[in-house]
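Worked example 4.2. Below are the chains of a multi-component assembly; read each line carefully before continuing.
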Amino acid sequence: EDKVVQSPLSLVVHEGDTVTLNCSYEVTNFRSLLWYKQEKKAPTFLFMLTSSGIEKKSGRLSSILDKKELSSILNITATQTGDSAIYLCAFTNDYKLSFGAGTTVTVRA
Amino acid sequence: DAMVIQNPRYQVTQFGKPVTLSCSQTLNHNVMYWYQQKSSQAPKLLFHYYDKDFNNEADTPDNFQSRRPNTSFCFLDIRSPGLGDAAMYLCATSRPTAMNTEAFFGQGTRLTVV
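Applying the procedure described above to all two chains together yields the following structure tokens:
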């Protein structure tokens, strides 16, 4: 059965800290791994990763995929209170998009 | 410039009374998804369409049905809503290619069952 596991499930940090979120997967016919940010509304797209070892960056966020280890990390540097959200890792295979349980990040001022 | 539109944003229905949620898209994407998301949980895939090809998740209850009359529209029918079906229902679309499988989400419909 395909699955994706995120860790930690939740964490609390202070503004300015760096956060590293993990996502590991066991997926047949793997096509891509995606990261989404969800506040009190629908998920918003952050990154899509298909190739191992190529870092994607957007401002203070970055992500990389390791196909050998079947995992991905999402880094957030210099965290701000606006980064407080649930971060969802998802995989696609056979055109399905399925989510992990998410990591709840709380950034305290 | 909304690209994936869900109606209504909020829906209150009575226990056991059939309800239909709708989703429309202007992206001409061939894949459409329906997710159920309960409080503090990740979105759970109910089913998806690849063009007209319907794909049901094994653990989606029979109470949930879907229709896709054309590329732009997709409906989620809940035949007899129970209290446990109260959730946010998210519609998403994608046009998978070798290089891109990003999904675009609507704003969701929050369903309350009374």
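Take a moment to check your reading of the output against the notes. Chain B has a mean pLDDT of 93. Chain B touches chain A at residues 31, 33, 35, 40-45, 48, 50, 55, 90, 92, 94, 96, 99-108 (CB under 8 Å).
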